[in-house]
Amino acid sequence: MEYDLDASAAARAGEESGYGVAERLLKLENSWLNI
Question: What is the number of structural domains in the chain?
């Protein structure tokens, strides 16, 4: 079951890769600025 959920999340991340990557980079930048 957990594997199926991970696979779904991976597929969703692949479909929205551009947005997901940009959002992840923004979160990383924010975490660096907050240090």
Answer: 1
